[in-house]
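hey all, quick one before standup. I had two proteins in the batch that finished overnight and I want to keep them in one place so we stop losing track of which output belongs to which input. First protein below, input sequence then structure tokens straight from the run.
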Amino acid sequence: VDRVRGSLEALGDSYEARRENIGTLIDQISELTAFSKTKLLDTFNALINATGSLETASKALPAAAVLARATGIELNAAADLVVAALTGDKGALEALRKFGVEVTDPSNPFQILTDINKRFQEQAGKSVTSLDRFKTKFAEFQVTVGTAVLPALEKLIAGLTPVIKLFAEWTEAHPTFTTVIVASGLAMLALGTALGTVRIALLALQPV
């Protein structure tokens, strides 16, 4: 989001003013293609920078997403292909034709996008599997949890670092006592394991 905000500010626009529309766009494309919202936002930002236009990027992103999902190519590669086609690149237009896109007017960028969507939108939706959607939801969950937990984890680590350092210094200064502590700990662990084994054996002997 920060990168999209910066790209829009460079164009003299405001992310805050466009937040709702951008969120809706990303949600709709993610629902159709099962690409994660994070990946779509990154590609959207790349399209804004490549085209220099929020409007063009907003129309190019759905075309790139359905192209990528339907053909199996990487999303970023699909976005690059779409951008090249919009500039009239003959190689890109030929590549689209090989993918089955009927480019009706190569001189009209928005018609090219319409032709891509017409060719791949339905196919992209059908090619999404339940596993694709699960992977996307799980990846987004990881990002959300990571964002929420990371600050607390960093504080915890920062607080424990002095304690760990002091303990390391103490063990270096008292190697003999440290050996005794470790040996005692291993003995307790062995005792606990033995007691657990005996308990299981006794339970096995009890009548049902």
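OK second protein, same deal, sequence then tokens:
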Amino acid sequence: SILFYILLYRNLVPSNLSVSRDLYFDPSTSRASISLLSSHDQWISSSSSSSSSTNQPHFTSTYSYDFWITLTLYDAYPPIENVFSCILTLSDMDNYVLARSVRPVHLSHRSFLVMYYEDISDFIKYLLWFHDGRNVERHTIKMMDSYNVGTSSSSSSLDRLNVTLHPHINLVQSATISWEIRLSGLSYILYEWRLISFITVLCCCIGI
């Protein structure tokens, strides 16, 4: 029964449920681009096909995917506009746009009194080696919901993720993009309720 459960889990729940990649923005354009078929990200030319043919594709038409972008931003002095747009574009090797999504990002708004208080508090922490002297805030944005690569006729050549911040800002400390498979049905039950599903399968096998 345990062997049956292991085989059932391995067949129904994919091993790469979630994949995360670092983003490196061009300071002059606030744009970042990574290749899905290459392990060298944007540091390799998109026209290079020798390495892409040897890499296993990240996506399959069997599942739907959710896309997330996490931005860690420095505080701006003086404060900039408290909202900007994050744009995600999926394209193939010929730069044909397969999907595009735009989401707003709202920066934290604080009064001058709160800013002065935080500056004094951070300065004390900095003197005590509890603070590195830079204030940051993190934003996690859901860019796409249940995207299925099988909906596009060019899904087999899905190659590149392009991220743009508009208007141009140069406050990004770090950024990552991640995509995860949206499970459903028995796959979702096996993954989310592992212990309950294991006990259920074990009882069924013993009963049989």
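Flagging for whoever picks this up: The radius of gyration is 22 Å. The CA atoms of residues 165 and 190 lie 38 Å apart.
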